[in-house]
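I wish you would study the pair of lines that follows with an eye to the fold:

===
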Amino acid sequence: MIELFILILFTVGSCLAVSLAISAWLIWLIWVILILMAMVFYGF
């Protein structure tokens, strides 16, 4: 029973870590796109 509980915790933890990593990467990507767009807009 305890092994199952640990397995569930591990799975949930892994999913959370992956989703956090993906969301952080997406936020960074959006910032980069916005900065590039601003540079292009103000450059021309």
In short: The chain has a mean pLDDT of 94. Residues 8 and 14 are 10 Å apart (CA to CA).
